[in-house]
Design a protein that fits this description.
The protein has one domain (3-256). With 265 residues, the protein is an all-alpha fold. 76% of the residues lie in helices and 0% in strands. It is rod-shaped and about 95 Å long. The longest helix is centred in the N-terminal third of the chain and has 44 residues, at 52-95. The two termini are 50 Å apart.
């Protein structure tokens, strides 16, 4: 499904999807009504209504599989962002074990990483254009700096070890959110879902071709149900895209202030 559609607000996304389905249903109704004359009308009438439940059930199964995929990926994206924020918060807290310039340096690097993630990476993830080839410079520098710290005493030794582990955890969480930002429902799955919906609408139009009022009512009802399912899937199909997307709120919450321990220098 087009990126332009996935980036629309949910209201306008709904208008486009429902509008397209209603147009398809209207065109289908007009074609079937025009064809339902003479021998063709008798052939349409001979189609068993018993074929509609299996078609609808198969459509529901496809929706269920795709919904499980998109919600799982959305949950994993939220977990990755929370892990990254938690790890960065750990770096900030542990940096207090190295008062003075080391603490200030680590806090500044964490702050720069969060600023870069919010200002640059989030927009790139929404477009699905960010890759793992670029290592975040502030975190890479923070890792190198942490490894060069000269700990004094067991407390600082333990703090250095935990800082390094926390930075590595933040890097891993970032990798996970970038990978998930490129996940989506692929074209084959969308095609299968929409073809199944179209076949079901065609079957409905043929079965009810002898009763125009009933045909219109049933087509509108099923087209609406298809639209609701497609809107639900499209709005959640990419975790970092669209109005219902994972936001960097928790990262902003853990961003350290300028200076050590939240105080201005």
């Amino acid at each position: 499904m087009g990126a332009w559609l996935l980036n629309l607000p949910v209201v306008w996304m709904s208008v486009v999807i429902l509008g397209g389905l209603y147009l398809f249903a209207a065109a289908l109704y007009a074609i079937v009504t025009a064809l339902a004359v003479g021998e063709r009308a008798r052939a349409f009438k001979a189609i068993s209504p018993g074929m509609l439940p299996p078609l609808a059930i198969l459509f529901a199964v496809l929706v269920g599989f795709l919904a499980a995929q998109v919600w799982s990926e959305s949950d994993r994206a939220n977990i990755a962002v929370n892990r990254e924020a938690s790890a960065l918060r750990g770096v900030v807290l542990l940096a207090a074990a190295f008062p003075g310039e080391p603490e200030t340096r680590l806090r500044d690097l964490v702050r720069r990483h969060i600023q870069d993630a919010v200002a640059q990476e989030w927009a790139a993830m929404a477009r699905g254009s960010v890759t793992l080839t670029i290592v975040p410079a502030p975190l890479a520098e923070a890792l190198r700096f942490a490894l060069t710290l000269g700990p004094k005493g067991e407390g600082q030794v333990a703090a250095q070890r935990e800082i390094v582990a926390a930075i590595q955890s933040a890097l891993e969480a970032r990798r996970q959110r970038i990978i998930l930002s490129r996940s989506s429902i692929n074209g084959v799955k969308w095609t299968a879902l929409l073809v199944q919906a179209g076949l079901t609408l065609i079957a409905i139009a043929l079965v009810h071709s002898d009763n125009r009022a009933a045909n219109r009512i049933v087509l509108v009802i099923f087209a609406t149900s298809v639209g609701v399912a497609v809107i639900l899937l499209a709005a959640h199909s990419r975790p970092f895209t669209g109005e219902i997307a994972v936001q960097p709120t928790v990262l902003l919450q853990v961003m350290p202030e300028v200076g050590p321990s939240g105080a201005s220098p």
